[in-house]
User: What shape does this take?
Amino acid sequence: MYNREGSFVKRESYAPVKVGDIVEVKIEAVGEKGDGIAKIKGFVLFIPNAKKDETLKVKVTRVLRRVGFAEIVGPATGEVRENNEDVSEDSEESEEPSYKEDAYEEQAEDSEEF
Assistant: This one.
């Protein structure tokens, strides 16, 4: 937001994934609107048309500060560890945090706008 001097300050995004990453996740729950909910290192991903307890390979389509959205690519090929700590080989881990301008962020709830 803005600091004490009135200057715009960028907030860090601690998302463990980026748009375009392909990751394997286990659907832990289903949201009110029917989207599957998975977590990667505590970061919540909403996946439309996913059912509870499915293990899937998904492609990240949108990343907000606290949640992300993904689409199903296919069934998972490997075993997913607890808390989904493994990030696929398509994701490059970076030492630098990614930044996003903190414009009006959409409300973090599952969406059917895909």
Summary: Residues 13-80 form a domain with the OB fold (Dihydrolipoamide Acetyltransferase, E2P) fold (CATH 2.40.50.140). Residues 56 and 76 are 4 Å apart (CA to CA). The two ends are 28 Å apart (CA to CA). Confidence is low (pLDDT under 50) at residues 86-110.
